[in-house]
Amino acid sequence: MLKRKTSSLFCTLISLLVFNSSVFAQESDSLRTINMDEVVISANKTEKPFVELTVPAKIISKKDIENSGHSRLDEIIREQVGIVTVPGFGGIEGVQLQGIDPEYTLILIDGMPLIGRVAGILDLSRISLGSVERIEIIKGASSSLYGSEALGGVINIITNKGEENEGFKSNLYYQYGSFKTQDFLTDILFNKNNITLYGNFNYYSSDGYDLIDSDDQKTVEAYNNLTLGLGFAYDMKSLGKIDLNTKIFRETRDGTIFLTSPGVNKESETHEENLYVKYTNDISKNVSLDVDLYRTTYINDEEQVSSNNIPNTNTFNQTLDRLDIRFKHSTSSGSYYTVGFGFDKETLERTNISSKPIHNSRFLYFQYDWNTSEKLNLVSGLRYDDHKQYNSQVSPKVSFKYNLSDKMYFKGSFGYGYKTPDFRQLYLNFSNSSSGYIVLGTKVIDGVVKELQDSNSLIFYNDIFNSNLTAESSNSYNLGLHYYANPSFPIELNLFRNNIFNLIETNIVGRKTNGQTIYSYSNLNKAYTQGAEIQGSYNPIKKLSIKLGYQLLYAKDIKAMDDFKSEIVYARDPVSKQSFQLSQSDYFGLYGRSRHQINLNLNYYMNQNKDNINFRINYRGKYALVDSNNNSYLDKYDKFINGHILTNLTYNKKISKKISFQVSIKNLLGYKDVENLLNNPGRSYSLKVKFNN
Amino acid sequence: MKMKKIYTLLISLLMLSCGDDDPVLEPIEAMIVTNLEAMTTSGPGQPPAGDFVKFSFAKQTTVEGDDWDIAFRATTILVNGGFSGASDEPNRSGMAAGYVAVGNYGSIISVEESLLVQDSETAKAIPTGDGNGWYNYDPQTYLITPIAGRTLVFKTHNGRYAKMQIMSYYKDAPEVPNAFSSQGQTYTFSYTYQPNEGVTTFD
Predict the structure, then answer these.
(1) Contacts of A373 (CB under 8 A, 6+ apart)
(2) Confidence grade of residue A508 (pLDDT, cut at 50, 70, 90)
(3) Are A436 and B168 an interchain contact pair (Cβ–Cβ within 8 Å)?
């Protein structure tokens, strides 16, 4: 039944697009939605035109960002086809790509990783969109180039560094909106001859909001942050080009939304610093060299004052150093080799982690981009990561693009992706005294258990799970068909499947005589995500562009499927309290996944294309975050978060060459779900003034 | 604690046709017990303390003497058979045993005697802990929920059999309990007792 529904939707979408193509094939491409010159860096660690990519990818352009009226990265990311954000522990929302959890998507800024994953999730609202040039999204496992974390895919945020020889350029904007939200940005760019200088400053603040009046705290407390970026680039011609970047981010929050005990006050302060030195040199006609040297630090301090005035500070202090050196050797016919190597050094100081662990790893990777013929481009790569603390990893990837005709091509890829166990899973030594449990990382458990055994305070200890953790990994498959009715009318279909194994879960390993349960981590579960994504864009009239996307997703846990199959899963009627058996079709799948997602983006240009109205409709099908009937499976008798539509409307108006206005209404229909959608305050308004020079 | 007799199977036809030498089968008893309180005296996060509440299937009520079949304290259920356990557990003087069967309450129609185990030094007949025995614990909502499709099967202290399904761990078995406002450690369960010695079926 469900299947029939989706396939008919599919057909409608295709027939709609195909039918219209024949009618409007003559349309001018002045407003074409795919820019043939757009390049993507993250798919190959070197620039490659978007239309020539062999892997599924998506670009969010500067224009898309400006039209959206959004201020922060998380806001625009969740309007993309096949991407939703889901809350993790503490309510922070992370990216779910192809149905894969936020922990498993690598987030980069200018190719360098963002750190500071608290409970596995990166807070994308840390990134101001003000100085972003474009966002690249690569779907499917990409560990063959990036190593750990690139299991679901890679999101690379490219910051604005100006065009060559632009001279002096500056921007300034100020936005004010509901909940006293303020967003101020100024940037200056100077680019002349062989010198580039740039700087940007962003200040963002919000009063937060409250969805439930009856409790004594806000849903989102007030917060503010500032970002300062400075850069200097010098082109020494034959000696190469050197590029220095530094970024500082600072955020203060009055409290956090996950606090449940009354009378508790919390302050949270985040401090992030990046330093990035890049050296590039075209050594010869065919060989170029890239050297990346990067250091990033993320510090978060949470002050907690309980009602009886006992202060308590939780600290999280992570540092990553990276060196990545690579050579690119071009051969005739447009093929090229890339060889890279380097090392990572990562440290963490954190409350409840007693030692200060250091992880060193070295890596070596190789990629061959082979233009076998006019029709077939084959890209194959392999990366070796030598990890000191756990199994070393070999990550292959093969992908191709095959041109069927001028208008149609196939893309396909197979890749291996992995994520190494994080510091928490290895070194955590956490004891929750109020609800009586202990969580131990696998590297500290032996020592702690021995101490407990010596003092006779263990009732039982089960060491069958006590093995070294290995990386969580996946095999990812993508197959895509791209059809261009004309340049302004592309349709893309992508089928994906990710087989994920060795997922790390917490499980009970023992119990203390005082009743405290001891948890630890082990590689247990297997899961898969699979589905289809289709998107198309099209201009029915010159002034109107329409983009439509749909994702169908099935995401399931293998053990849960087996349990349903072996008929041991039951649910209970809440009223009669009688149990009844569930069948295989009652299993919904993994938490936080919606089966259907639709994104529609309408752009209407006015006044010689100077002004425009941008209207977006985002639909997300029902999903569930918890097992509400407590049978430990997500089944159709659980309570689901309703499917819902969120709409955003933006009006952009140019007053003069230098001044423009923007009015945004987010969540125009005012959809709210105060129990489940805590990041949605309802309808909000904002006004923005921009100056360009 | 309240009890309700749901039905009594009077096998009167059978009794009429029986000859004098045939044993007279007593009827099977099906009961619902509501709000049996089995509180620990210690605070949250502390190991449970205080007396176990002892229950007799035959007497259909809590008992003080040695004729108990099963005993409750917080989420732990003991059987009156096997290792007498720690100092705060009641002495096991009977021959009771138990196991957890997977299946609807109604579909458990006989006892698998080979599965019956007694409490031992290291494990209870009804395993303790989240997901192991009769309940799931949800660390997000702090709720204890009886696992659906689990039936507890017992041999009583004097060798009879009973089956039992726990329906709620909260007072008055609310439709949607709340770990903060609902009174926990308060059992509602139904059971079926086979009073005839040597008979392992429940129908």
Answers:
(1) none
(2) confident
(3) no
pLDDT tier at A655 (50, 70, 90 boundaries)? very high
pTM for the structure as a whole: 0.87
Structure tokens at A663: 């009015």
Our count of domains for chain A comes to: 1
* ipTM given for this complex: 0.81
Look at residues B32, B76, B82, B84 and name the one whose alpha carbon lies nearest to residue B52: B76
Positive or negative: CA dihedral A606, A612, A613, A618? positive
Largest CA distance in chain B: 62
Percent of chain B clearing pLDDT 90 (strictly above)? 63
- Lookup: tokens for B49: 């303390």
Give the chain A residue nearest B128 (alpha carbons): A511
Domain that holds residue A326: 2-692
**Distance (Å) from the alpha carbon of A90 to chain B's nearest alpha carbon:** 12
Burial of B99 (C-beta count, 10 Å sphere; 0-12/13-18/19+): buried
Output b/e per residue, A58-90; b: 16+ Cβ within 10 A. Answer: bbbeeebbbbbbbbbbbbbbbbbbbbbbbbbee
* pLDDT average, residue stretch A187-206: 92
Chain B residue with minimal CA distance to A577? B167
Mean pLDDT across the stretch B16-40?
77
**Which of A459, A572, A635, A676 to mutate to test binding with chain B, by most B CBs within 10 Å of its CB?**
A572
Q: What is the pLDDT confidence band of residue B10, given thresholds at 50, 70 and 90?
A: very low
Q: Which residue has the tokens 């756990």?
A: A390
Residues of chain B neighbouring A574 (CB-CB closer than 8 A): 175-176
Q: How confident is the model at residue A647 (pLDDT cuts 50, 70, 90)?
A: very high
Q: Is A456 on the interface with B (CB under 8 A)?
A: no
Overall average pLDDT of the A172-181 stretch:
96
Which of B35, B167, B169, B188 to mutate to probe the A interface, most A CBs <10 Å? Answer: B167
Of all residues in chain A, the one with the smallest CA distance to B103 is A568
Q: How confident is residue A464, by pLDDT bands cut at 50, 70 and 90?
A: low
Mean pLDDT of chain A: 88
Cβ(A527)–Cβ(A533) below 8 Å = no
Backbone dihedral angles phi then psi of residue A24, each to the nearest 5 degrees: -110, 20
The number of angstroms, rounded, from the C-alpha of A395 to the middle of its chain's C-alpha atoms is 21
B149 touches A: beta carbon within 8 Å: yes
Is A631 in Cβ contact with B148 (below 8 Å)? yes
Between CA A149 and CA A171 the distance in angstroms is 35
pLDDT at A547: 95
Q: What is the 3-state secondary structure (H, E, C) of A658-683?
A: CEEEEEEEECCCCCCCCCCCCCCCCC
DSSP conformation letters of B115-173:
G-B-B-SS--SS--STTTSSEEEETTTTEEEEPTTEEEEEE-TTS-EEEEEEEESSTT-
> How is residue B110 annotated by DSSP?
B
For A331-392, list the strands marked E by DSSP.
336-350, 358-371, 376-387
Pairing, β A153-159 against β A105-109: parallel
The backbone torsions φ and ψ at residue A69, rounded to the nearest 5 degrees and listed phi first, read: 80, 5
pLDDT at A18 exceeding the cut of 50 = no
Residues 6+ apart with CB under 8 A from A600: A546, A547, A548, A549, A616, A617, A618
A566 exposed, middle or buried (CB, 10 Å; 0-12, 13-18, 19+)?
exposed
Cα B151 to Cα A68: distance, rounded to the nearest angstrom = 56
pLDDT at A135: 96
CATH code: domain of residue A386: 2.40.170.20
The number of CA neighbours under 13 Å toward the Cβ of A84 is 32
Neighbours of B86 (CB within 10 A): 9
Contacts of B106 (CB under 8 A, 6+ apart): none
